[in-house]
Amino acid sequence: MTNPLAIYFHWPFCQSKCPYCDFNSHVWREIDQRAWRRALISELDFYAMQTQGRTVRSVYFGGGTPSLMPTKTVKALIEAIHNRWGLAACEEITLEANPSSSETLKFKALKEIGINRLSIGVQALNDDALTFLGRAHSSKEALEAIDRAANTFDKFSFDLMYGLPNQSIGSWRSALRRALSIANGHLSLYELTIEPGTEFFKHNIKGVTDKESANMFEMTRAMMADAGMPAYEVSNHAKPGHESRHNLNYWRGGDYLGIGPGAHGRITISNQCIATHQIHNPVRWLKKVSLIGHGTAKHRNLSPYERALELIMTGLRTREGIDMAYLEILTGLTRNRLINPSRLSHCIEAGFLKNSGNILTATEVGIIRLNSVLETLLVADTQYAGGATVETGQ
Fold first, then answer.
1. What are the sequence ranges of the domains in the chain?
2. Which ranges of the chain does DSSP label H, i.e. alpha helix?
C-alpha cells in the first residue's frame, strides 16, 4: 500500500485550564512519564500492524500542551515512527507550544530531535486580553517565544483570537497588523466561541455581536490577503509553501492515525474507510492500553455517503475546494446523490459558491455563511447510512 498517512499524538495535560477551552485537556500535578511514553508507543504499534507498507507524510503533536512533554518522550515517539514506517517521505513534524519561558527554552532541543515546525498558542498580544483568556504567559513572553521560534525553525505559526467581549474592529486590526509584522509565514486566526462546559459558558460570557463578528472576519481575510498570506482554510492563513501539510491532509480527506486519549482517526483498509475514536478519559485510556495494547473506544466503517459528506464539508472550508469528479471516483456515488442540483444552482446564482469545471469552491460571500450553505446544499439520504459501530470499551 502506498496511500500515505498522517499521525496525530494527543498529550492531554496542561499547567492550567483556560476558561474558553473545551479540548480534552487536564491539569495533573503528577504524571508517570514512563508509563505515558510506553502507552503512546504501544497504541502506535497497534495501528502500525494495520498500516504496514504505508508511508508517513506528516506528524502532529497536539493537546493539551505537548511542549510540556519531556523531550525524551517526543524523541522516542519520532524514533518509533521511523522504526515502523520510516520518515523519508515525512514533510512536516509539528509540535504545539505555549509561549512560557520554560517551554521556549526547549525549542532548540526539539529541533535537534526532529521537530521542524512549531504552532505557538499566543492567542493575544496584549496583557489585558491574555488575563481575560486565562493564559499563563505575558505579552512579553509571547514576543520572546516568537522571536526564539524565528531564530530556530524555518517554519512556525502562532494563533490569535478575535471577537473578545467589547473588542472593536479597530483594535483587532491593530493586533493583526502587529502580528503580521512578526509572523513567519502562517497565522491561525480564530473567533472566540463560547462552548458548553467551559468556564466562560458557566459565567455567561458573551463575545461580539453577529454583525461585528462578520465584519471582523471579512476584514481579517482582506487584510491577510493584502499581506500575501491569504486564507487557505476558514481560520488558517499562509504564504505560499507555508501551509500546514498535516491539516491539509485532514481537509483533503487523507488517512490519519489518532494516538492518545480522545484522539480520532480515519484509516482506509481494503478500500473501506474506518473511523476510530480513542477513549476520552486519560485514566481509563492509560488503563486500557496497559491491558490490551491500545485505547480504542470504538471503530466504525463509514459508508461511501458518509465519507463523501465529510469530504464536502471539509473541502468547502478550503481555498482549493472539492474536485467533484474525484469524489465520484472515490465514493462510487454521483454528485446528484450528494448535492441537490437545483439548490446548487441557487447557491451559485446567489454568489455563495463557484463551480469551475469539476471544482466546487465557496466564495468570500459564501465562506462566512458556510454552515447554512451546507445545510441547503447536501442531500440527506438514510439509504447510505454507515456500518455498525464496534464498541471496544470506554
1. 2-246, 306-375
2. 33-50, 71-84, 101-104, 107-112, 127-132, 139-150, 169-182, 199-202, 210-226, 245-251, 282-292, 304-315, 324-331, 335-338, 341-349, 364-367, 370-377
